[in-house]
Amino acid sequence: MGLEKQHNDLLLVKQKKINNIQLLRNQYTISLLNVGLREGLLNSQEVYEVQIQLMQILKESIRRYTREESSSISSDVAEEILTSILYAVDAFLFQLGDPENAINFVKKNNMEITYEQGVKIVKDCLEETRALFKEIRNNKLDVAVDSYNITIDESIPLFLKK
């Protein structure tokens, strides 16, 4: 009897496979939660807990942003901070590869851990980008193409500085 239940549970899991096409790359976490809820891989309480945890991260980020002098900021700034939080969370969850792995991670771990791991991934990518840019700059072609020269000499350094 126990083996039959395990087999039936396994069949249910296989049937619930999330198609990556259903997930938006630029809003991976949000679409993962929506699809997970719709497909029955997450329940509304689990999604609510994730939302609460993300709001806690936002609250702490706002406190750091204002140097704990205030808790009020413009809605535009709050939106930008939340977008950056979700960018880091997206980076981590996306690198798990399989959407089901991401959902299982979300179910078993606090979003603070997810966020911190995502920040690490983003920092590592930025460092790798800086190293690659240094290599590009060292091997820059000597051509009279303004857009090429401006991109390498001005635009990319400005982007990396910000």
From TrEMBL:
InterPro entries attached to this UniProt entry: DUF6179 (IPR045751)
Protein name: DUF6179 domain-containing protein
Record organism: Tigheibacillus jepli
